[in-house]
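Risk register update: the risk of archive-format incompatibility is retired. Evidence:
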Amino acid sequence: MSLISDIQGIRSCRPYPIDHERRRRVLIALAENDMTISDLARAIGIKRSLASYVINGRRLSPITEQKIAAFLKKKTDYLFPRFTTEDIRQILKVTPKHKSRKRKVS
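Archived output:
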């Protein structure tokens, strides 16, 4: 059982909420290397969508995180700090809820 499932109501919260700090750190490292997320994904042999999900924190993938950190020559723990249950609570407090849009049926 993961830390995520410890929080009531979070179990169904996949993908995970966006972690803006994590994203900021990776984007800075990419800018230092004059790269985009697409360039990074191509260089390490993964799909751009997976790279984006991992960078944003929407998907947790230790193997992909390690590949990205190794390619950017940064520590994995620096670029991809681990979520704690309290971190997730804080992220969810500031993350706006999406309202479902109902389509008009003609």
